[in-house]
Amino acid sequence: MEDPNTDSHGIPEKIEELDSQQPKDFLPPSPPPTDENTSDTDDEKVEIPLPPPTHAPTEVLGIDLKTPDSHVPRDPRLIRLTGVHPFNVEAPLTDLFNEGFLTSPELFYVRNHGAVPQVSDDDIIDWKFTVEGLVEKPLTISLRRLMSEYEQVTCPITLVCAGNRRKEQNMVRKSKGFSWGAAGLSTALFTGVIMADVIREARPTRKARYICMEGADKLPNGFYGTSVKLNWVMDPNRGFMLAYKMNGETLRPDHGRPLRVVIPGQIGGRSVKWLTKLIVTDKPSDNWYHIYDNRVLPTMVSPEESANNPKWWTDDRYAIYDLSPNSAICYPEHEEQLCLAGASNTYRARGYAYSGGGRRITRVEISLDKGKSWRLADIEYAEDRYRETERNLFGGRLDMSWRESCFCWCFWSLELLTNELAEAKDIFVRAMDESMNIQPRDMYWSVLGMMNNPWFRVTIAHEGDYLRFEHPTQPALMPGGWMERVKKAGGNLANGFWGERLEGEDPVVPSEEQAKAISMVKDGLQNAISIDELRKHDKEDQPWFVVSGEVYNGTAFMKEHPGGAQSIISAAGLDSSEEFLAIHSETAKAMMPEYHIGSLDEAAKTALAEGETEIDQSGTPSEKFLNSKAWKKAILHGKRIVSWDTRIFTYKLEHPDQRLGLPVGQHLMVRLRDPATREAVIRSYTPISEITERGFMDMLVKVYFAESGGKGGKMSLAMDALPIGHFIEMKGPIGKFEYIGKGKCLISGTERFIKNFVMICGGSGITPIYQVFRAVIRDAEDKTECIIFDGNRLFEDILCKEELDVLLAGNEHRCKVLHTLTKGPEDWTGLRGRITAKLVQENYTRTDETLVLICGPEAMEKTMHKALLDDGWSDDQLMFF
Ligand SMILES: Nc1nc2c(c(=O)[nH]1)N[C@H]1C(S)=C(S)[C@@H](COP(=O)(O)O)O[C@H]1N2
Ligand SMILES: [Mo]
């Protein structure tokens, strides 16, 4: 007979009748489900924690519509930690705690490195994964087979991201990771197969030591993957699972639908979602995400050192597996107020604790005097209640009676006297596990900010009749928390005293790092600027912009700005910290105090941070793709390899009729994020596709590969690694030059008529030149004359040669292209050597109506600049891109 809870694929979609008041009524009978007469054994009378009521979101949120996750309905309560996409979220701590022991799938934290793979309902049951590598019998197993040919089990498991509580580390010193609060953990009943059963069937060979796992999510550095030891997988006490259900329903897309690994007691990062491969090996995984994520490097390794020295990342001693003991206070909540007048005599403090490797939390301690004395809290291990029963739950056998490991969080609580709270300055909690591992007093800061577990501290402020409680931080960019307050007051959060100044202690001296940083503010200027004032200056007339909370007036340098006035106007009224800091030199930064006019007030900072979105969300897509005020996402559609180091990337715009919207001669900014840290890399490029092209655009990019010792080009390497289908962000146009046609140019907004162009370029500097050259040639009535000097090293390095030759044909009377090579082949009949002022002079007679366009490597631009000035050209005849 068919199980009534089962849909056509054999997977119960959800136990709809799930009613936490009457648990035994909905439980499906033990497999195989043959009898509607559920046996009413003693066991089933034992009350076990069941999932909280769930309301699966059915609608895709507006904010997700324009992302690759536009197929994933989500709960709007979740706090986004990395902008709109990828989806990395935690629930508000109180909401998470209030749900109780089990978390509903809609509030379960999510950590996605990229887009969520889309699997239709019909395809779920045929999802396949392989077992390969050092095995005698490689396997390909479908979910259908997994569900029918192996023993099915159900077990409660807490997953914790290694980044849980990272915001506290970021407050002390910025790590290479985004800011988790204390809700980066969640608990569910997982149903699936014991991983060892599958591995055993494949018969690992004698050399087998590790199991590498891979997911279906294709990311900038390959598929997500990691590894664990084979030994652990085979150990029944460790409970490694391949799970397809969470709280009795098919896994939701964000959590690995249809199949994921679940590794109890270890950091969440090892529990690979959307599982496609299990590879048995004799070495740990060489997946990028295994190497560069989920590690605790030694504390003295700085972000710079870790970037310069790969050896830190490949040392397996620093990889995290088991979780360490950790705890947090949930009540009092952040910003909770307790009115002393009429308050009850006691207050019950409550929170959670967990440890790793199946180790039980054996004590939780509370201090009201900064750790001088401690008292024991009560601990509730809801997980133990499952050990008293044996039954079928959600189609899997729930039998934990034999297992002593603890895979879940526990709750602690302690009754405190209100009087004591009124006298205390703070509440601390720390937990210890059965191996006597205890949370440390001091933070262990490390580059990735992971496994943060110092004593959790909530401060108590006395405000009249009230006590006000403050947690250390708030997640993401949300302001608030005692750490921020102490830091602003000049406290050194690493002073061993939570940054508070001890009596008689001198004020903090800024660290060397802080001292070295170039000051971009005017000395002594104190002028609070509100959001309304800032917003009044969002146009070309008096543009103000914000960098790191400071406000600048861009009016005075609009004309001289190398990026053109447009780039300042684009930033007007906005926070442009990221772009500004990413593309400006120290010299440019040093000029900033002159334009500094004040600091945003607190409300304005919050408003700016909240309004921060990464994509333009205005309803219908516009006629032009580019928007000078918002980053827009284009999808990598194709890639043509032009030479060993040169590619033409084709990007797809929002709709087939859309134009890029880039005037001739201008550029656009491209932004890519480091997949692990989400740090932005921004560069400007000029596409080579026609400006009239619709729906797509092409970009010619030279890839700067790492040569021995060097690091290569961050952006070009990242672009080259981007998988087809992945997005890239663009914003623009920028640039102070624009070619209107028939000799008419706009330079910083001023019209100028010219008769000839001298175009000097090198390497991929040809791309903006090519745009202008093509515009001149395409217009039969444009009488402007052009001469291109294109310098390269090898013959193979010449870019767009064919395209230039095609354009030139029939136009030789007014246009000329000269290639010069420093390392030309023997049979090269063209020019040799670098481009020099002399070469220009020999081939071209200067007029008053000439404009020189120069684009190439910085060194080349500098030398040419000097040489041309020496040769009698003036700066207003020279245009550098
Ligand atoms: N395929 C894949 N698996 C993955 C990830 C991912 O990005 N891709 N993130 C990992 C990390 S770091 C964590 S903490 C957990 C989060 O699981 P959850 O999103 O279901 O809470 O999934 C892990 N498995
Ligand atoms: Mo994670």
Automatic annotation (TrEMBL):
It comes from the Eukaryota. PROSITE patterns: CYTOCHROME_B5_1, CYTOCHROME_B5_2, FAD_FR, MOLYBDOPTERIN_EUK. Residues 526-601 form the Cytochrome b5 heme-binding domain. This is Nitrate reductase. The chain crosses the membrane at residues 178-199. CDD domains: cyt_b5_reduct_like. Mo-molybdopterin binds at residue 161. Residues 1-72 are annotated as: Disordered. Binds 1 Mo-molybdopterin (Mo-MPT) cofactor per subunit. It catalyses: nitrite + NADP(+) + H2O = nitrate + NADPH + H(+). One of its GO terms (biological process) is nitric oxide biosynthetic process.
